[in-house]
Amino acid sequence: MASTRRRHPTLDDVADEVGVSRTTVSNAFNRPDQLSTALREEVLRAAKRLGYAGPDPVARSLATRRVGAIAFMLDTGVSAAFSDPALSITLDALAAEVDREGHALLLLPGGDHGGPPADRVLNAQADLAVAYSLADGAPALRAVRDRSLPLVVIDQPYVPGAARVSTDDRGGAVAAARHLLDLGHRRFGILSAQCLSEPRGGPMTAEEAAKSMFRDNRERLTGYVDTLATAGVTGVPVWETSGTSREQAQQAAGKLLDADRRPTALLCMSDELALSALAAARQRGLSVPDELSVVGFDDTPPASWAEPALTTVRQDLQRKGRLAGELALRLLAGRKAPPPVTLPVELVVRGSTGPAPD
Amino acid sequence: MASTRRRHPTLDDVADEVGVSRTTVSNAFNRPDQLSTALREEVLRAAKRLGYAGPDPVARSLATRRVGAIAFMLDTGVSAAFSDPALSITLDALAAEVDREGHALLLLPGGDHGGPPADRVLNAQADLAVAYSLADGAPALRAVRDRSLPLVVIDQPYVPGAARVSTDDRGGAVAAARHLLDLGHRRFGILSAQCLSEPRGGPMTAEEAAKSMFRDNRERLTGYVDTLATAGVTGVPVWETSGTSREQAQQAAGKLLDADRRPTALLCMSDELALSALAAARQRGLSVPDELSVVGFDDTPPASWAEPALTTVRQDLQRKGRLAGELALRLLAGRKAPPPVTLPVELVVRGSTGPAPD
DNA sequence: TGCGTTCTCTGAAGCGCTTAAGACATTCTG
DNA sequence: CAGAATGTCTTAAGCGCTTCAGAGAACGCA
Question: Where do the DSSP E strands lie in B16-143?
Fold first, then answer.
């Protein structure tokens, strides 16, 4: 009819077309029981005729005070994040859980301060925020608080009022270190993920590493170092890999292996790092586990595909994600955050560790 | 002051507190040049005092008709999707590109019909949708059209009005098949990703596979089959892997390898599949490339880590993502979609292919 | 028949913000 | 010093929807 491109039809247009009130049209879409079937169908027909696809999500959100999205805040970029199976598994479980209540995930990738920029958080269209292993004091966390958005933190220090789920990182690290000690190892190297918010990379002392801005990093390191210390092993070299690429990690592992007194065992803060260490060893013709033992962390699927399969610290990533999702839904339902949950870990011994060479 | 938990402060509250109009407060946040610095700072101070963190994103969106989010529609779940490096690289580049204009990504994972459920799309708070390799006729696509959301499609059939970027899948498949023919191979197997929206898995004829609901699937298959046919090789067995797990893929590859007349070459529709095929070969003590040649598709990072490193068809995933992002921004700026772009591919010959055994 | 229910539908007040247009005062031009 | 230009702030009209509190009509029961 109208020749010119008209603006999007609205509820009112449909109402006018049918000759009913706006409320009735709204009900036709949202509460079918509030009007007669006949009228409802007439409304729906008119809507289709006019090209009205249903209530505008934004306007609806304004009226209902509910968006239907959860902001997922990362420390890293999207790619780096997802190249880590540990994250994608967790995220998937989380997504599946909140999907049940119709919530989608809004991805807020990291900027330069250990998390997404504050203004991205302030402008995010979301009912709740999930923080996944952000750096301590990340601006994003402040922004969440300023907006008083409900918050779920994963693998992070406790935030008052927020729900929290984390992993027994220290316990896992202790088990890993003890396992190697039990095998007779005395010369170690620690391969660490990025510790500070600034990418750096390179050797660092245990003291420096203990100041990492990432809790899981700190916890794992402390677990390793303290346990080794109880056996009188101190001054263990730590090498931080900057960025998340396999190449960088492999290079970092190489540095540890090329040291004067080559370690007989490598404690790696993630399976990804451990796999890179395996590659570095192979490059040097070092036999694993005969000449070198390697242990990872997380027990992601690739850990068991490797040759030799990785000895690693297993955590139930799926459960972690699901739990975070449940916590999110609980907060969204207006309930209070339960006490923080720490999930257990378990050492899984496979082929990448063996007795220390003589 | 007030003892009871008060509702969130709004612009008006701040305006009242300072004794100015609502517009002025809005300007203090959005257009600093519209008021005196002194007043602006007073407003900001008052806002802070009241715990007002800035304009509500939803209300702002309603007024500005802009959300600041892009809906990314997937065929699969989050985890399955991201375990594929090809996707995470593409997505990362896309995210980085649209981030420049302040757009975040809203993830809409797949349901049961080759894409996210229609109502999820209808309710998504987003300015634009990106469809990544959805099944033909996915309900999500219809929903996008009904909402008349701008659309960018990646690796999918052309949709009128939408911007499109895709890969020369067929050309790549042709190159891969020709390479193997040139090496003297005459007995082939094709390892295919999931073809239909229903998970199935198992052997299928080339005819069935050509009816795949996924364009890249069809294209690659056609490229393989047609090229082999030109050399007189027909009746090539195709095995579809259901789901996306490594285990399933490995099993499927095994089925091809355990056939009566074992193929000497495997054409795999992705690097992930090819890596699984490598594992299946190893399991059977088959030497690659002496007894078996394997070629992948995509040239994702793990392809070059494998032993032997994968011969594969390289596509520039980063560029694909960036381009999709640029197209998105262009549509959002109100400009028309340019003609569809098809990105070139290139065969990368590495260690996993060699002359056919006698 | 009278009165309380139930069923349909409407009126109107928001949800919290942006922005065009304009009022008023101050500062610049020549 | 008149008139134009500029700077500062306000008024008011939306953006498109939900939902509470009814208004009428039709129905059930005794």
Answer: 69-73, 104-108, 128-132
Q: 């529709």: which residue's tokens?
A: B269
**Residues A329, A199 share a domain:** no
Residues B135 and B239 in one domain: no
Tens of pLDDT, residue by residue over A123-174, are 999 999 999 999 998 999 999 999 999 999 999 999 999 999 999 999 999 9
Maximum CA pair distance of chain A? 91
**Backbone φ, ψ for residue B163 (5° rounding):** -85, 150
Better-predicted residue by pLDDT, A37 or B2? A37
Both A48 and A113 in a single domain?
no
| Domain annotation covers residue B4 | no
Long-range contacts of B142-150 (CB under 8 A, 24+ apart): B142/B118, B143/A53, B143/B118, B143/B119, B144/B73, B146/A51, B146/A53, B146/B122, B147/A53, B147/B121, B147/B122, B148/A8, B148/A51, B148/A53, B149/B71, B150/B328, B150/B331, B150/B332
Which nucleotide is closest, CA of B35 to its C1'?
A: D8
Is the torsion defined by CA of A316, A321, A327, A330 positive or negative?
negative
> Which of A271, A283, A282 has the alpha carbon at shortest distance from A310?
A271
Protein residue closest to D12, using CA and C1': B23
Q: How many domains does chain A have?
A: 3
For A34, A260, B305, the CA distances from A298, given in Å and listed in that order, are: 52, 30, 21
> B255 in a domain, yes or no?
yes
Nucleotides of D under 7 A from a protein CB: 7-12, 14-21
**Three-class DSSP labels, B128-169:** EEEEECCCCCCHHHHHHHHCCCCEEEECCCCCCCCEEEEECH
Backbone angles phi, psi at A31, to 5 degrees: -140, 80
Do the Cβ atoms of A92 and B77 come within 8 Å? yes
| Segment A11-40 mean pLDDT | 93
Query: What confidence category does residue B209 fall into, taking pLDDT thresholds of 50, 70 and 90?
Result: confident
Q: How many CA atoms lie within 13 A of A252 on its CB side?
A: 33
Do A85 and A142 fall into the same domain?
A: yes
From the list B227, B217, B240, the residue with the least C-alpha distance to B169 is B217
Evaluate if pTM is beyond 0.85. yes
Angle between helices A271-283 and A246-257 (to 10 degrees): 60
Cβ of B22 less than 7 A from strand D: yes
> What does the pLDDT read at residue B3?
29
* Number of helices followed by number of strands (H, E) in chain B: 15, 13
Q: How far, in Å, is the CA of A37 from the C1' of nucleotide C5?
A: 21
Rounded to whole angstroms, how far apart are CA atoms B246 and B85?
13
Q: Which residue range(s) make up the domain with B265?
A: 169-315
- Amino acid at position A307, single letter: E
CA distance B99 to B68: 9
Q: Which residues of A touch B279 (CB under 8 A)?
A: 305
Q: Where residue A1 falls among pLDDT bands split at 50, 70, 90?
A: very low
Q: What CATH code is carried by the domain that includes residue A240?
A: 3.40.50.2300
B60 by DSSP, 3-state: which?
helix
Report pLDDT digits (tens) over A247-295: 889 999 999 999 989 999 999 999 999 999 999 999 999 999 999 999 9
* CA dist., res. A115 & res. A134, Å (int): 6
Over residues B239-259, the mean pLDDT reads 89
| Nucleotide minimizing C1' to CA distance for residue A18 | C9
Q: Does residue B63 belong to any structural domain of this protein?
A: no
